[in-house]
Design goal:
11% strand, 126 residues, 3 strands, mainly alpha
Length: 126
């Protein structure tokens, strides 16, 4: 049995579902990976990630901080300096992100082939 039935781990208010929704966000895994080695400044993350706006990075970092995955450290210096780093909880996501990345590398072409083979567009109601 899969465990995905009524009362399972993905009810609307279940912590598992809320967590999956958090890490399934477009930028979450990329930002977490960008913080995987050393503390990083906002501008450095922009350069490292590429394609993310400053506003979206700020929103993503704030959400990850609120969920206990990222720590923000503001230094009392002039000019101000702020660095972000993974918390121990955030670091526990690196292995699952790596596994998902490896799956994507191994199966990305098959996913694209399936998209190319399907003549019907996908609509939100499907």
């Amino acid at each position: 049995m899969s465990g995905f039935g009524p009362g399972g781990p993905f009810l609307a208010d279940c912590p598992a579902r809320l967590t999956v929704e958090l890490i399934a966000d477009k930028w979450t895994a990329v930002v977490l990976y960008g913080l995987s080695k050393v503390p990083v400044r906002h501008g450095e993350l922009i350069d490292l990630i590429g394609g993310i706006s400053r506003k979206m990075l700020t929103q993503t970092l704030r959400r990850l901080q609120a969920h206990g995955l990222v720590r923000r450290h503001a230094y009392a210096e002039a000019p101000p300096r702020v660095e972000y780093e993974l918390t121990p909880l955030g670091a526990t996501l690196l292995d699952p992100i790596h596994t998902l990345t490896e799956w994507a590398r191994a199966n990305g072409d098959a996913v694209l082939d399936a998209l190319d083979a399907d003549p019907e567009p996908v609509t939100p109601d499907d």
